[in-house]
Amino acid sequence: MSPIDETTANNTHEVAQAVTPTARIVYVDYDPLVQAHARTLLTSGPDGATDFVHADVRDVDRVLAEAARTLDLDRPVAVILSGILAHLPTAEEARDVTRRPRSAPTSTVSSSSSPAWST
Ligand SMILES: C[S@@+](CC[C@H](N)C(=O)[O-])C[C@H]1O[C@@H](n2cnc3c(N)ncnc32)[C@H](O)[C@@H]1O
């Protein structure tokens, strides 16, 4: 689950679908500007799918319900938390965000930020 950064050369779905054309990717962000960019940037390859969920990642029930439009959550998923954990005030909130989307066995999570509460 990662918002879009238009300053980078390739977004997550472009990288994933270059390797696996059938890859299905869902982005999540609560910023309306990111949502507006998503409409123009999220162009999936013909064999895969992309979607954008405009929500707070801490609203895990909503995120999972909307992600299920695109993802089969009974199968393993990779959760990418790029630059997001530092925005979550407590470890308890982060625990829910990182664990519940990974209910299927062999799911993975990666994060690229160090929140203040982790030190
Ligand atoms: C540092 S930027 C990361 C941008 C991009 N993922 C990257 O790695 O370059 C943080 C993003 O997280 C979003 N964000 C922060 N807190 C959030 C929350 N609770 N729910 C959803 N999105 C959030 C912000 O709107 C912003 O787009």
UniProtKB/TrEMBL annotation:
Pfam families: Methyltransf_19. Residues 93-119 are annotated as: Disordered. It comes from the Bacteria. Residues 103-119 have a biased composition (Low complexity). InterPro entries: SAM-dependent_MTases_sf, SAM_dep_MeTrfase_SAV2177_type. This is S-adenosyl methyltransferase. It comes from Virgisporangium aurantiacum.
